[in-house]
Amino acid sequence: MNTSEKLIATEQRLGAHNYKPLDVVLTRGEGVYVWDTDGNRYLDCLSAYSAVNQGHCHPKILAAMVEQAGRLTLTSRAFRNDQLAYLYEELAALTGSHKILPMNSGAEAVETAIKAVRKWGYEVKGVPEGKAEIIVCADNFHGRTLSIISFSTDPEARTGFGPYTPGFRIIPFGDAEVFAAAINANTVAALIEPIQGEAGVIIPPAGYFTRIRELCTANNVTLILDEIQTGLGRTGKLLAEEHEGIEADVTLIGKALSGGFYPVSAVLSNSEVLGVLKPGQHGSTFGGNPLACAVARTALKVLTEEGMIENAAVIGDYFIEGLRSIRSNIVRDVRGRGLMMAIELEPEAGGARQYCHALKERGLLAKDTHDHTIRLAPPLVITKEQVDWAVSQIEMTIG
Ligand SMILES: Cc1ncc(COP(=O)(O)O)c(C=O)c1O
Question: What are its cofactors (predicted)?
Answer without folding.
Answer: pyridoxal 5'-phosphate
